[in-house]
Amino acid sequence: MIRTISSREVYRNRWTRVREDVIERTNGHRGIYGVVDKDPAAIIIPLEVTADGEFVYLIEQFRYTVGGRHIEFPQGGWELAEVDAEEMARGELREETGLTAERMTHLATLQIAYGVMNQQQHVFLAEGLTMGQAEPDQEENDLVVLRVDVREFERLLLDGAIVDNCTVAAWGLYKVWRERAKA
User: Fold this and answer.
1) Cα dist. 73→20, 62, 139, 153 in Å?
2) Is the dihedral of CA 88, 89, 95, 98 positive or negative?
């Protein structure tokens, strides 16, 4: 167990808080631990099943931290510590894609990069989709919505074209959930 000796906030903005903790390890050695605190988020798997097959909706956008455009499931948060997870997921889905879902199934709550960041991410499966008008945030003005066949999506995952760990984790979770639901 690691014990916190002291903690101080070193940075804060609307989306993120960074703190530096002085810690003591079980062996008695002290050190510094940097922690990024973020409010809860949601990631949504928008799944459409038609006579033509199964499709997912993805977002392509520029991610500043890695300096490139990337493909991922719709995801995000509301910068609120206390939030109804399903309401947030529905809001993020509508905001980024214009989609509304008849059914939302909460698959799990995961921790994102918990070696450095304290943020929960609620994983939802969205079904019974209806297209409407997207309402992206100012930071999301370059979003492109993609409707992709599931086989093509899985090829993109395996080929490394999709590198977002949250998207990969959400899809793996969905696959396990689906297999258990069939049993």
Assistant:
1) 31, 14, 17, 11
2) negative
- Look at residue 94 in the predicted model and tell me its pLDDT: 95
Whole-angstrom CA distances from 105 to 35, 76, 115 are 31, 17, 28
Measured CA to CA, the distance from residue 156 to residue 174 in angstroms comes to: 17
Chunked mean pLDDT (size 10), the chain, 183 residues:
94 94 95 94 97 97 93 93 94 95 97 92 97 80 93 97 97 96 82
Give which of 63, 91, 78 is closest to 162, Cα–Cα: 63
pLDDT of residue 141: 76
Domain coordinates in residue numbering, the chain: 3-35, 41-182
pTM score, two decimals? 0.92
**What tokens were used for 96?**
């980024």
Which of 81, 74, 183, 182 shows the shortest CA–CA distance to 136? 74
Question: Domain 41-182 belongs to what architecture?
Answer: Alpha-Beta Complex (3.90)
At 79, is the secondary structure helix, strand, or coil?
coil
Q: Both tokens of residue 179? A: 């297999």
What is the DSSP-derived secondary structure letter of residue 28? S
DSSP assignment string, 53-75: EEEEEEEEEEEGGGTEEEEE--E
> In sequence order, what are the residues at sequence separation of 6 or more whose Cβ sits closer than 8 angstroms to the Cβ of residue 69?
60, 61, 62, 63, 142
